[in-house]
Amino acid sequence: xxxxxxxxxxxxxxxxxxxxxxxxxxxxxxxxxxxxxxxxxxxxxxxxxxxxxxxxxxxxxxxxxxxxxxxxxxxxxxxxxxxxxxxxxxxxxxxxxxxxxxxxxxxxxxxxxxxxxxxxxxxxxxxxxxxxxxxxxxxxxxxxxxxxxxxxxxxxxxxxxxxxxxxxxxxxxxxxxxxxxxxxxxxxxxxxxxxxxxxxxxxxxxxxxxxxxxxxxxxxxxxxxxxxxxxxxxxxxxxxxxxxxxxxxxxxxxxxxxxxxxxxxxxxxxxxxxxxxxxxxxxxxxxxxxxxxxxxxxxxxxxxxxxxxxxxxxxxxxxxxxxxxxxxxxxxxxxxxxxxxxxxxxxxxxxxxxxxxxxxxxxxxxxxxxxxxxxxxxxxxxxxxxxxxxxxxxxxxxxxxxxxxxxxxxxxxxxxxxxxxxxxxxxxxxxxxxxxxxxxxxxxxxxxxxxxxxxxxxxxxxxxxxxxxxxxxxxxxxxxxxxxxxxxxxxxxxxxxxxxxxxxxxxxxxxxxxxxxxxxxxxx
Length: 524
Hints:
five-stranded antiparallel beta sheet
């Protein structure tokens, strides 16, 4: 097998897989290097004990926080990346998210592209990833967007009751856009069965639309596409001028290997992409590859997140609750008194007793822990995720220690809007949940979020922009300082906004793919 390719892509998650899929029909030789293996299809895919208690599929590597305390990141190194374990919420950034926005805690800077640049790719990505949703209900969505190709997933009866409860308070809850292969009209033959093992689990039926099922597997039959698993990229070499990547060095069971490509694309995830660039320093790039701006690893964002766990007053008929969201407070409090962005609310997945035990038991009162082994409370459990924008800060960064450890330095910011939104939601649930139960009185503390949720929405370590002094990539996601290096994971994000990032990663990879088509054909 030749070790030289037209395009070498490091990582097979949402960005890398989508780019490969975009370029596969060109006939150009494409190599995808994935550090993980193919995810096995087995009964444990649906086991809460295997997934959440034993962490069977999660990496065991350690990262370190700003206090030099080790933690296991919520990362999954498999073909398809983390998308096989995500919750399938696929939302567009709001149109205003691309513009400079004043928050109570500071300024969210503008992107070098705007909503219109991604709009056609958002539509294409929604169709390819079978996003089910409904336009015209979300108060924060851009006007004039076309209808979803797939209808919204209906609410279970208990979630419909919650929707009515929120509407009586003047809220406008809408259907959370979900990427699942569900045909509501044919329940006996549809791939998605709306099971209790969606978010956090790999889908045994491959009915959750992820990079594995929607991008990688459809292109493996192309003779010009090669996927190699078990290859961890550890270094990028350049020519003496430092202008061109000449080799990708990987470690594998076969030892160190060298791969070359006319174009090299990194899509290893915001943290690992920054680590790879920092580990590739050489005489031409003494501070790390593409790091003349000293921005590689900086401006790390991952959302300010609070998981609210409550017990409803009545049993909740909802085995698939993650179908509802709220954006009334996305830009400000519509009731007045706070004219700054607050964030987004969405329902979380069904949580069994073992899910709770594995996910959040260490953060709840110890007296509750024995009950987590049982599912008695699951029928009355209601779980929300409150998402707010954290602002990019150059001191919030990914770095390598002298001995090669991955370190994530982070201090939370812009908290007032988030805390207000958590309080608003708690008040809104009066009459629907029991605030007297210890679970309902508790929400996860901010200081606990990094090891638990800190990598799910990671972004921003190699942000793109027009100015090489303040960004790592240009608007086409090419490194300012190298002529053949691109990045298409969430590292390119300038800001996190306050919605899930996956759809934007996919749409941008399609956009960059079209740019690379032109370049590969000698027209760009």
